[in-house]
Specification:
The protein is mainly β and 115 residues long. Helices cover 0% and strands 54% of the residues. Strands 2, 4, 5, 6, 9, 10 and 11 form a 7-stranded mixed sheet that branches. It has a 4-stranded antiparallel sheet with strand order 1-3-8-7, with no helix packed on it.
Length: 115
């Protein structure tokens, strides 16, 4: 079955960096577009970044120039490098895949940006 396991979250000061990882299993990772979403307290879950099976990337405007999504198809791992973090980036971050019309989610990893 499809499994997505995020890691790498934590507490970081404004201006700091974190790299999130998402280990994927149960499907042909290199054939699917992958996504990072985030959900802040009291808000909806929003798309942050996308990487296609061919490596094309897209970002929400608020993270452009600060976040980088990438994938390692040899290891079946999705990454999100987050630089110049701001308090507004505080959220639970989820990786996701649209698998045969159903969105599959990981359990999420908490990112807190605070001094």
């Amino acid at each position: 079955q499809v499994q997505l396991v995020e890691s790498g979250g934590g507490l970081v000061q404004p201006g700091g960096s974190l790299r999130l990882s998402c280990a994927a299993s149960g499907f042909t990772f290199n054939a699917y577009t992958m996504h990072w979403y985030r959900q802040a307290p009291g808000k909806e879950r929003d798309l942050v970044a996308t990487v296609s099976s061919l490596g094309a990337t897209d970002y929400v405007d608020s993270v452009k120039g600060r976040f980088t999504i990438s994938r390692d198809s040899g290891k079946d791992v999705l990454y999100l490098q987050m630089n110049s973090l701001k308090p507004d980036d505080t959220a639970v971050y989820y990786c996701a895949v649209d698998y045969w019309g159903n969105i599959r989610w990981g359990q999420g990893t908490q990112v807190t940006v605070s001094s």
